[in-house]
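Bug: token stream looks shifted between consecutive jobs. Job 1:
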Amino acid sequence: MTKIIRIGMDTSKSVFVLHGVDAAEQPILRRKLRRKQVLEFFAKLEPTKVGLEACGAAHYWARELRALGHEVVLVPPQYVKPYVKRNKNDAADAEAICEAMSRPTMRFVPVKTAEQQAALMLAGSRDGLIRRRTQLSNTIRGYAAEFGLTAAKGLDKIEPLLARIAAAALPELAKEMFATYAREYARLKVEITKIEAKLMAWHKDNELSRRLEEVPGVGPIGASLAAMKVPDPHAFGCGRDFSAWLGMTPQDHSTAGKTRLGVITRAGDEALRRVLVVGATAVIQKVKQGKGQPSPWLVALLKRKPPKLAAIALANKNARIIWKLMVSGERYNPARAAAARGEGVEVPSCTSGTPCSPPSRTLRAAAGDGPRGPSLTAAALGVTGPRQVGTEKRPSGRTKKLTLKKLENVAPAAV
């Protein structure tokens, strides 16, 4: 029998479809299995490479098949879809998985351990309970408003509102319903407190999570999520790749040599991106209140950009710092960041041979080495009139002229 070199497996709750090929890329295995037959079949098969879509229960099957000696890879579903030729069905999906996993540039999802998934379950349960509490508080507010009882914003206003409802002259049926809501609200409050205590205990026991918490704008929740959701940071070539994976880089719709960048992609993990943006927003609120010691970069950014846009930029920067701390094993060093800011040049976080992205025109101008940036020699020689030094392409497609503004009271440098 010809040896199978690769198998694509389409999974579901009870039906599993296999598509295997030989060294000549010819299909030699097309088979449908029931759930209880999967492990029996692969236990009798020689160790080979098996690919699955990174969907529900994929990590479980990956661990089970690896225990049998097979090499298992998880392919993101969006990378499998282009290989489905026609008529979506289980057999076509298995063939597409088998084809996609053979691509030399294909990116795979790291397989999570059972302990990592248990930690993710803890974080997911907290999010679910918080959503239910929000829904319940909105329900209480909505029904209370129908009886002329309102309260200010904030969770701390719900219990006083329930006390006012209990003392108000309402129909007996309404009071019974509000009492039911009050019991449910109290139960959710207790459950969330327990979950958060367990999450904080996990955070304190994890060395990586404790290191990530030291980054301004990254609290215990954000640090814990980053440690849970990124089992292999070395899968990213540089910090920008990690930030792009989180969906905090602009959409690229460039063509014919024209760069057209839009809003952030919002791809990747929504929970981790949301926590980083919320943390960055908290930092910006402190800066606007005059508290803390913000970086000159952030202060200058807030002067020319809206707060929400600045929050995305800060979250993007924090994501790159998180990746660097993950791969290097170092601790966050505020003195090093301050020294880099004092020089006016951002320290690159890319460790690969290929740079993550070319330096911006602003950085080139500050360093004085850009072909279109204003020359520092011109300022030293006391240029007194405006001079066009280049153009800048805006995201909207318009072109803005860059001029060297008039420099007054500058003595010519000695030649």
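Job 2, same session, no restart:
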Amino acid sequence: MVSERLCGGKSLPKVVRGHAFLGMVLTPIQAMVLVAVDVRHDPLPAGHMMCTVVRSHWVKSHASCAKFGSSINKVDETGLERLREFAVSGHHMYSETVDLTRPFPSQRAPTDYDPEYCWNQWLAGPFERAGLRSCCVVLLQGLGCSRTMSCTGGTFSLALITRKSIANPGTRYNSRGLNDIAGAGNELESEQLVWAPAASDAASSPGSTREAFCSHIWRRGTVPVHWRHELTSSVTAPKIFISERPYDGVDDFVFECWQRYTALGMSGNITFVNLLRCDTGVCLCARALSCASVGGLASVTSLVCCGKNKKSTKQQI
């Protein structure tokens, strides 16, 4: 990646070496490209690799076609500054050999991703409009790591992949319950993989080797009904407010879960676990929220049987 810097009125080239393009922003006066400078590689079954961004860098380059007197307004300038301050390093990952937005092993190409788990879709816009979407990796927010361990029975590898949904992200007290597209606040999908590594072959390509593995998937987010928190004091617990129509969208949320995993040909049951306390020592609001979550799931018990033609509510993501 080559950018330009001015020295004594002269333009001097600057070379930035990196592993992948993470996105680009075009303004009337410059182009800003986000580059993964340092990454950590963690292996997956069948020779695939996931890469965690350890250090990223924004590369600026003056636009050669910029009109004389071009500038950006204060609002856009503030937005760009916030974008540059967004923490990418250490919190995001990608893979150039396998689709990480779906449970492993996805049969889709890395560029045929699920938009609900892609965090740089807007940043990849300039690449896509130029017909170069494959040149910009699909960035996920979460954790991706793997380790090889030894025991008396031999050697095995363990990997953990955690994906954060973009349907309803936010800070702790600001993203609670369901929003208008049936996205649960701060929903995370976690996947644990265990496999016995096969003998390495330098000539083999990712996906060409066969390795037996097992996978376990679980999700966790805020209670999938309509509710919110309100902070009235810095020394007291926040108050819980439940909507007058708390179950709106619960069927969509359950259907999205069912559709995601059955479409992948995954077998087994989908189990919902209520992690809220229900004993008499809990405040009335918390108990009401727990009852609402149970009632909401109970209201969609027949969804799997009759919802095969239901349309996704997250198509607008």
